[in-house]
Amino acid sequence: MAIWIHEESRVLIQGITGNQGMFHGEKMLEYGTNLVGGVTPGKGGQEVHGVPVYNTMKEAISETDADASVIYVPPRFAGAAIIEAADAFHAVKGEGVVVCITEGIPTLDMVKAVDHVGRLAGIRLIGPNCPGIITPGDGGGCKIGIMPGHIHAKGRIGIVSKSGTLTYEAVGQAMSIDEGQSTCLGIGGDPVNGTGFIDCLAAFEADPQTEAIIMIGEIGGTAEEEAAAWAKENCTKPIVGFVAGATAPPGKRMGHAGAIIAGGKGTAAEKFAAFEAAGIACARDPSEIGAVLLESLKAAGLR
Amino acid sequence: MNIHEYQGKQLFREAGVKVLDGVHCTSVEQALAAYDELGSRIVAVKSQIHAGGRGKGSLYDPASGGLIMEGGVKIAFDRNEVETYAQNILGNRLVTIQTGAEGKIVNHLYIEAGCAIAHEYYLALLVDREEKSVLIMASTEGGVDIEDVAKNTPEALHKVWVNPRDGLLDGQKSDLATDLGLSGVAHTSFVEMIGELYSTFLSNDCAMIEINPLVRSEDDEIIALDAKIGFDSNAAFRHPEWEGLRDRAEEDAAEIRAQEAGLSYVNLDGNIGCLVNGAGLAMATMDVIKLYGGEPANFLDVGGGATEEQVEIAFSIIMEDPSVKGILVNIFGGIMRCDIIARGVIAATESLNLSVPLVVRLAGTNVEQGRAILAESTLNIHSVEDLAEGAQKMVALIGGGA
Question: Under an 8 A CB cutoff, do A76 and B237 touch?
Answer without folding.
Answer: yes
